[in-house]
Design goal:
heterodimer; A: Rossmann fold; 2 domains; 6-stranded mixed β-sheet; 12 helices; 15 strands; B: mainly alpha; globular
Chain lengths: 347, 284
């Protein structure tokens, strides 16, 4: 448990460990091992209410295990977790009444039609007049565009149709929290776009919190409010997406500078001056033609950097600054940056 | 999937407000309780039996093996032995019926239930269902109830009815009805025992082969043990076919058979209890 927290502080993690006031999901040191294999290592997660929270990581990172732990489908080896303030171990039944879940590669009963499948799911949540249940089923079919295939046996459904059915069954109870494991997998670009739209609408119109995993980083950047990145069971970062893109994932704020120097010596002098500052955590330099340089500077103290960085460089005689600004990474860059650093043990 | 416009028109919020009648919405009550989802799961299990060819296939096979072969053997014995009385013909048929009925129920249980829980765990449908507010107890009990219902019907009840009618026709004397009913009840208890054992093992093993091998192995071992440690047969349903046969033909059950009936019932209850307990903690 401690190891992971220490790792994350070394990484300069942002909000992990802090309790978001209106968190729907919270875990503390949630760990799952299978024999000697650690599937999830002391996960501290906090998913804010009414947000779309992207859960990223390579295959085998522990995303599905986390979701199953939250739903009470597997039991933690240690640690704890809560959803809506209810314990995931002792109050899992109450939690499942308020949650919708779409599994990765969802499987249903092949002898049922799409309509029968949704009716089957709805009856776990509600009893009452058939007409009310049927109405709910019809709405869900319509929401995902399966009305015209409602009475076909799902044994013959394509991967995309199964995914849509999965989304329909996950939201049939108007859940306060949707847990979606790879919801856009096996969908074509149009289908993906529609899934993202449905997710955004559920958040905006029904205040649903959506916790989802995906490999499609573009989708995450388009629709998510916050993200967490997991690798080999370890949480590498957790932050609002804007913060993650600004800071590059590894903590601090990243600035880019374009410089021209009279000689290599003056550039070296400027670099040494900047590097000596306690609030600078790294400085990467790429060479351009002549005495031109491009620096990527990571600062741990944003205000110190914005007040002093440019001044420090310009203090060196013979150095001119042709460009300066805060760098905003793509999620892909931030993701690979974190994974590679996490994997090489540099964090 | 829908276009943005259609989606927005048919959105849940809009739909709930505009499409669903308020009284209908209010009439929907949340489901709960320790057996939450039981009725729903029973409906699903029944659907699995009736939707596909399963019912017809099992019905045909067991009718042929349990009822028709038994009657045929009794008929041939009657034809071959002119001195056979109607009771002798009935006894010959009863022996075959109880032997084939007890073996058939074990084979049918394994064939039908080996993938019941294991298959659902492997496919992921168990995880899907249990991610809803369905109790794990309900999941197992629904399988027990529905499989017992249909297996009893196709392997024993329907063949028993046909056997009884045909035996009455060929022997010109019906087997004693109450005693025959008693023998049938003994076989039914045996079926429940093997079903409970199979469900328990499906919460233990991860492969169908191990489950099938264990259940068959238990049955075959029983026949062998009967020769070396006959007292053990009093604890299990291995010789239920003899108990049923003696009850119908002689109007009484041997002592070991009398003991084995409550013992088997207790085992069945214990197996069901253990299956529920194990599945409660199963990782899906």
């Amino acid at each position: 448990m401690t190891t992971s927290r220490d790792d994350r502080s070394a990484l300069g993690e942002y909000s992990g460990g802090k309790s978001t006031p209106a968190a729907v999901i919270e875990t503390r040191g949630l760990t799952k091992t299978y024999g000697h294999v650690v599937a999830l290592k002391a996960l501290d997660l906090s998913v804010p209410k009414n947000s779309i929270f992207g859960f990223l990581g390579p295959n085998g990172a522990g995303k599905t295990t986390t979701m199953k732990l939250l739903l009470g489908l597997v039991r933690p080896t240690s640690g704890s977790g809560s959803i809506f303030g209810k314990d995931i171990l002792s109050e899992d039944f109450q939690i499942r009444r308020r949650v919708g879940y779409l599994a990765q590669d969802p499987r249903y009963y092949g002898h049922m039609t799409a309509r029968e499948t949704l009716r089957f799911v709805a009856r776990f949540f509600y009893s009452g007049p058939e007409s009310a249940i049927e109405r709910r089923v019809d709405e869900s079919l319509s929401l995902v565009g399966l009305s015209d295939r409602a009475d076909r046996r799902i044994r013959g459904f394509s991967g995309g149709e199964l995914q849509r059915l999965g989304l329909a069954q996950a939201q049939i109870n108007d859940p306060e929290l949707l847990i979606l494991d790879e919801p856009a997998a096996s969908l074509d670009p149009m289908g993906r776009r529609d899934v993202l739209e449905i997710m955004a609408r559920l958040r905006d119109e029904q205040n649903t919190t959506i916790f989802y995993s995906t490999h499609i980083l573009d989708d995450v950047q388009r629709v998510s409010d916050s993200v967490a990145i997991l690798e080999r069971g370890r949480l590498l970062a957790q932050a609002p997406i804007d913060e993650l893109l600004t800071t590059g994932g590894a903590g601090g704020t990243v600035y880019e500078l374009a410089l021209k120097g009279e000689s290599g010596a003056v550039l070296e002098q400027a670099r040494a001056r900047v590097r000596s500052q306690s609030w600078i955590s790294s400085l990467e330099e790429s060479s351009e033609p002549g005495w031109e340089r491009r620096w990527t500077v990571r600062a741990t103290d944003e205000s110190a950097a914005e007040e002093n960085l440019l001044r420090l460089v310009l203090k060196t005689r013979g150095v001119r600054v042709t460009g300066f600004g805060r760098k905003r990474q793509s999620l892909e860059e931030a993701f690979f940056d974190l994974i590679e650093k996490g994997g090489s043990g540099e964090v | 999937m829908k276009s943005r416009e259609t989606l927005e028109t048919n959105g849940r919020k809009t739909a709930h407000k505009d499409m669903e009648k308020p009284e209908e919405q209010a009439a929907l009550k949340p489901v709960g309780g320790p057996l939450s989802g039981f009725r729903n799961l029973v409906g699903k299990e029944n659907g699995e039996w009736t939707a596909g060819p399963s019912l017809l296939a099992h019905g045909t096979i067991w009718m042929l093996i349990v009822a028709l072969i038994s009657v045929a053997v009794a008929f041939i014995r009657g034809e071959m032995e002119p001195g056979y009385s109607p009771k002798d013909i009935n006894d010959a048929g009863a022996l075959m019926f109880f032997v084939l009925g007890s073996v058939a129920s074990v084979i049918a249980v394994v064939a039908k239930t080996q993938g019941s829980i294991i298959g659902e765990k492997q496919l992921g449908t168990a995880a899907w269902v249990l991610s809803k507010p369905a109790s794990r107890r309900a999941f197992v009990l629904a399988k027990l109830v529905v499989h017992f219902r249909w297996l009893l019907t196709v392997t024993l009840l329907l063949p028993a009815v046909v056997f009884y009618v045909l035996m009455t026709a060929i022997a010109t004397l019906p087997p004693p009805p109450l005693l025959f009913l008693g023998g049938f009840a003994i076989l039914a208890l045996g079926l429940l025992f093997y079903l409970a054992l199979s469900l328990l093992l499906s919460t233990v093993f991860e492969s169908r082969g191990s489950l099938a091998g264990s259940v068959f192995g238990f049955m075959v071992a029983g026949f062998m043990i009967a020769n070396y440690a006959p007292w053990l047969t009093a604890a299990f349903p291995w010789l239920f076919f003899q108990s049923g046969y003696y009850l119908v033909t002689q109007g009484q059950i041997p002592v070991y058979g009398l003991i084995s009936i409550p013992a088997t019932a207790l085992w069945a209850v214990l197996f069901i209890f253990l299956a529920l307990r194990r599945f409660e903690r199963a990782e899906l």
